[in-house]
């Protein structure tokens, strides 16, 4: 997890973390998420690696759970490949993300 701590007068005042990691923490705590991005598919897919890491999954674990190769998942995470609808649904199911069902 990549967290930035903002200090004031020598005391930690705020913790800043990537949106996908925040969403994963909300899900882990049983809280409703607030996915309000204008383009949830593109935004979430752009944060796929952070979301996967926030949930403690390796590239290999997620790829096998979705039914694709780790190499192909790496290409999706890097933005070099756009997954088809079936893979988006699989990623959404395994990661607990909504809004990936339709293309953008």
TrEMBL record:
InterPro entries: Cro/C1-type_HTH, Lambda_DNA-bd_dom_sf
Coiled coil: none
Record domain HTH cro/C1-type: where: 48-98
Phylogenetic placement of the source organism: Bacteria, Pseudomonadati, Pseudomonadota, Gammaproteobacteria, Pseudomonadales
Alphabetical list of CDD domains matching this protein: HTH_XRE
Any one Pfam family match given in the protein's UniProt record, by short name: HTH_31
Name of this protein: Helix-turn-helix transcriptional regulator
């Amino acid at each position: 997890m990549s967290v930035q701590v903002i200090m004031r007068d020598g005391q930690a005042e705020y913790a800043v973390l990537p949106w996908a990691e925040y969403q994963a923490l909300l899900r882990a705590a049983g809280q409703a998420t607030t996915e309000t991005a204008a383009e949830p598919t593109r935004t979430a897919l752009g944060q796929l690696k952070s979301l996967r890491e926030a949930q403690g999954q390796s590239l290999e674990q997620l790829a096998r759970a979705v039914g694709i190769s780790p190499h192909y998942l790496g290409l999706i995470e890097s933005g070099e490949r756009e997954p088809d609808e079936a893979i988006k649904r699989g990623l959404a199911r395994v990661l607990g993300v909504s809004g990936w069902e339709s293309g953008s």
